[in-house]
Amino acid sequence: MRPSAELPRRGGALRVDWGGLLAVARGVERWLLPGECVLCRRGVAAGDGDALVCGICRSRWRSVPDPVCGRCGEPQDLDESCRMCVGWPDGLTRVRSAVRLEEGARDVVHRLKYEGWWRVTEAMALRMKGLEPLTAGVSLIPIPLARRRERLRGYNQSERLAVALAGAVGLPVRTELLRRTRETTTQTALTPDERRANVTGAFAAGDARGVRAVLVDDVFTTGATLLAAAEALRAGGAEQVEAVTFARAVSI
């Protein structure tokens, strides 16, 4: 199943064939660049095809350890209540992340967000494809990026990740259901409370009635962005909102 998305234009919607664009980009990249891993710079083994991240580097991504909180996916002791999602509003039902945000995973996220290597999302998506919210009947909704940041970067890394994930699991990507309504400051240096305030009201949803949504983002830190996006989708009529991310920041 080839993932696609509807993009608005005058006189109707423009249907973008993400699978076709990805195939073209992959072919150009194979012609221009040698077959080496973007992380370790070693040659990619024949069995890895045209992957940008070699099997050795992918094997170093450590999975989020069980047990995890049933709602937010944070690792926890069985005899303790979760401190991460206490006080969360009801809009976001469940979050799951594939790996811990440690050296190797942090490197690939950095390549994606700041160095233009958007096709690393294929390797990231393969690691995410078994996450629990990715069931039949759901729609993948990437977190919208601020317009200025997307212009500077050239793309929205969450959208590229959602498209790669759609190719891996055969689910639709719905980019038209969620938009960012205002610019926000970077979340990096903010406390959890500051992060929540920073993104409150930063998203709006279209007609999401009956949609079972799975938000897609690269990194889970405190959940503030996912919560704000989920609140907007529920206000737009979404039946259920869950989320998946590639990496999860290691709690201190």
Can you give a write-up of this model?
This protein is 32% helix and 19% strand. With 252 residues, it is of the alpha/beta class. It has a domain at 61-76 and 90-101 and 121-248: Rossmann fold (3-Layer(aba) Sandwich), CATH 3.40.50. The strands form three sheets. Strands 3-8-7-4 form a four-stranded parallel β-sheet. β7, α8 and β8 form a beta-alpha-beta unit. The longest helix is centred in the N-terminal third of the chain and has 15 residues, at 18-32. The chain starts with a strand and ends with a strand.
Give the ordered list of helices and strands.
EEHHEHHEHHEHEEHE
Terminal CA distance reads: 41 Å
Shape: globular
Q: What percentage of the residues does DSSP assign to strands (E)?
A: 15-25%
CATH fold naming of the domain at 61-76 and 90-101 and 121-248: Rossmann fold
Summarize the entry for a quick read.
With 252 residues, this protein is α/β, with parallel strands linked by helices.
Tell me the layout of helices and strands.
Blueprint: E1 4-9, E2 12-17, H1 18-32, H2 55-59, E3 94-100, H3 103-114, H4 121-128, E4 139-142, H5 147-153, H6 157-169, E5 178-180, H7 192-199, E6 203-205, E7 212-220, H8 224-235, E8 240-248
Parallel strand pairs: 3-8, 4-7, 7-8
Antiparallel strand pairs: 1-2, 5-6
